[in-house]
Specification:
D-Maltodextrin-Binding Protein, domain 2; 37% helix; 454 residues; 17 helices; six-stranded mixed β-sheet; five-stranded mixed β-sheet; alpha/beta
């Protein structure tokens, strides 16, 4: 193995493993030109940069593997891509800073910023971007992307919006992930709910949704619907989508929470109808998933990240479909994984160029990431270029990359989202009055968003 001159960032300790819930091409791009420090890579001086990410730990299954087609999980895809980059003769080595427990990652990442030792590159959800960019912790990338051969215009509109804060680009999007309807087609067929081609008939209204639930139970004895009802805010994701389908928003243009509205009241009514007549609200993430894979549930509301897993595991005819449109327009919860460059770790030009080279490599491999994970590719050229034609189920939801409804890009959103989820869940877990829950949710959300008025 070639000698490396290590530029290590000390004092970083991310003891981190993904909780699943939650979400191709060689890099022959030259490092962007900069001031005199950028000559380090060109002169053959190897640079080590640090990477913070979640997605779990999979060192045992990926050691020495550089063929991304061998990956079967998110963790394996991103680690094999990292391995492949490190094997190239590019003068850069990426050192991963351990795995990450999904719901602790941002606390740990914030600690590295507070200690003055952030990583060179970090993964970040789009809804977290304002909390970091708003504190001037991230490097604006507007002037860096062209030199790294990253075409920001090739990203879909939702992806572009998720990577920006107050008009500046702070991230390179990696995917769009969001809600899907995971369907047991065999149960739909037994209930007579398939079309002439044998495809499951999706409801086009709330009434049809509830009628299908009755039919499935009567004809098959199975539950119609399942989701994680209390662990990872999955109910809040469906709530957001149903509000959006009615033309509503959960935060207005001034940054005020707007969930206690006619659209919010209707969305919560539907959620509680499902909980009481068509589902089991005592199920969390693992229980709901197990029930679906076992064939006991007709529809599971979960995300893009489990498509390949279910496609392998299901002993029934499985389909991953877009969330049905029950109101006036399409709408489903979406988010994005993105790559950011902490400003404090990228002041040195050579290290910054190395960081950009790695992110540019990941940009070139967005198709491989989408094919290996189930997430939506967010580059128009990838979506239309045929790279994903053979990936299972993708044709059923590929166009969703243009219609995902991202959560608002406002500071304090993480706490606001948790408050919303808490109040919604209280209505089906502890029978809290829905009107009171929405009123309390709106008040708590505005406290998190800093928009409380006297």
């Amino acid at each position: 193995m070639r000698d490396r001159r290590l530029f290590r960032i000390t004092g970083l300790l991310l003891a981190l493993a993904l909780v699943a819930a939650a979400c191709g091409g060689d890099d022959d791009t030259p490092a962007p030109a900069d001031d005199d420090g950028s000559d380090a890579v060109a002169d053959g001086e190897d640079i080590e940069i640090t990477l913070a990410r979640f997605f779990g730990d999979c060192d045992e299954t990926t050691e020495g593997v550089t063929d991304v087609s061998e990956a079967t999980t998110e963790c394996e895809v991103i680690q094999i891509l990292t391995n492949a980059f490190n094997e190239e003769d590019n003068g850069v080595t990426v050192e991963r800073l351990g795995g990450a427990v999904w719901d602790q990652y941002y606390t740990q990442l914030s600690t590295t910023f507070a200690g003055g030792n952030p990583p060179h590159v970090a993964v970040m959800h789009s809804h977290r971007l304002p909390d970091f960019a708003g504190r001037s912790l991230l490097r604006p990338l507007d002037d860096d992307l062209a030199g790294a051969d990253i075409d920001f215009a090739d990203f879909t509109e939702p992806a572009q919006q998720g990577a920006m804060f107050e008009g500046d680009i702070f991230a390179v999007p990696f995917d769009i992930h969001g809600s899907l309807w995971h369907v047991n087609v065999d149960l739909f067929e037994q209930a007579g709910l398939v079309d002439d081609a044998g495809d499951p008939i999706m409801p086009t209204s709330v009434d049809e949704l509830l009628e299908q639930a009755e039919t499935i139970e009567a004809e098959t004895g199975a539950l119609y619907f399942s989701q994680d009802w209390f662990e990872f805010a999955v109910g809040a994701r469906l709530f957001l989508g149903l509000v959006a389908q009615q033309g509503g928003d959960i935060v207005d243009a001034d940054g005020n929470a707007t969930v206690n509205t006619p659209e919010g009241q209707e969305a919560l009514r539907v959620l509680n109808e499902l909980a009481t007549t068509a589902s089991d609200p005592s199920q969390g993430y693992t229980d709901s998933e197990s029930a679906f894979v076992a064939g006991d549930v007709a529809v599971l509301h979960n995300g893009t990240w489990v498509v390949d897993q279910y496609n392998r595991q299901a002993d029934f005819n499985y389909a991953a479909l877009q969330v049905p449109i029950l109101y006036d327009q399409s709408g489903f919860w979406g988010d994005a994984h993105m790559w950011v460059l902490p400003d404090a770790s990228n002041e040195d030009a050579a290290e910054r160029d190395a960081s950009l080279a790695f992110v540019a490599f990941l940009y070139e491999n967005i198709g491989s990431w989408a094919a290996g994970t189930g997430h939506l590719a967010n580059r128009t050229s990838v979506l239309t270029g045929g790279e994903l034609d053979d990936a299972p189920q993708r044709a059923n939801y590929a166009d969703a990359a243009d219609t995902a409804v991202f959560v608002p890009a406002v500071e304090g959103w993480a706490g606001a989202w948790d408050s919303l989820a808490d109040e919604l869940q209280a209505t089906w877990i502890s029978d809290k009055d829905p009107q009171s829950a929405l009123a309390d949710a709106e008040e708590r959300m505005n406290e998190n968003l800093g928009t409380v008025t006297d």
